[in-house]
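Lay summary. Proteins are chains of building blocks that fold into shapes, and those shapes determine what they do. In this project we predict the shape from the chain. Here is one chain we studied, written as its sequence of building blocks.
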Amino acid sequence: MDPETIPQPETTIPRLVFDATNQQPIPNSAWLNSFGPLPSAWQNAFWEEDRDAVSLMVSQSGSTHAARIGSSQKSWGVALQCEVCDNRTLLWAIQIPARTDDLSETLARERALGEMRMRFLSLVSHEFRTPLTVILSSAELLEHYGWNWPEAKRKSHFLRMQGAVANMTSLLDNVAFLGRAESGRLENAPDSLSVLQLVESVVEELAPLRGLGQEIEIQIQPESASVNLDGRIVRAVLSNFLSNALRFSPSLGTISILVQISENALELLVDDQGGGIPHLDASRVWEPFERGSNSMGISGSGLGLAIVARCMELVGGSATHQPNPHGKGTRSRAIFPLGETA
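And here is the predicted shape, written in a compact code that computers can read:
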């Protein structure tokens, strides 16, 4: 199937679509059915005290906000989320039901889960388009012209295809992992774990994501240590820290992985040379589907740091971001409490 013809899922979630040439957004049918047509100044659809905050959300293409739509005679409480997709800004509005009894709260939770599943489906469909296009184009070029190409050029196309597959695999793994965490099916099962083997395994697994000339430095102190931790959880945290570092660091950049093990904790540090996380985005990037305002043009799902946050909650640890102390970029830090080390 041609990636461009992959069907996009219909959505029942009200939304407004802004593009670069039209300052008046276009509502979808769900918006019209729920809230009616937009006024000539779209901000006037919201209560006066919410208009400035909603306008700021749209201009910065990010964040979430609770607001009210309508007038004093008839209004709806909504949870707003803003994101960028295919150079368009999407403003989603999920109605917040009034809490009347336990049944209504249960129905509200079920609806929220259903909408989350819809977002997952939309995300997977959208994020698969680019890697599938890469695979298809490289395969066609190799089929028609590869026989006459030098080995280096053929290899570059195979590497592109491997990188595209790695991106899709990472996305599917993250969706499945976060789904287990959100449903309460993810458990912490500590066992003896060789730190060096795990780190080397993750670095090898993410090799297709490396940019031109990117280097990964590994330092483990002490190098031969084993710890009592759940390998799936440590792997998920390191994989998401490292994949972000590779995506945001420039070509010829260096990513450093430092693991320091003490009697009471394992500290994981990943330093990149990217543009850093804007201060205003620092807290919201830990939530599902949230990305930094400087991530335009960089592939990603907005799930990785949400997975890290859920993992650290499960093990009773902590995760933070701070400026890279060695220069430009970000230091991602996770601390895992330990029982016994060997």
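What the prediction tells us: The chain has three domains: 3-95, 102-182, 191-337.
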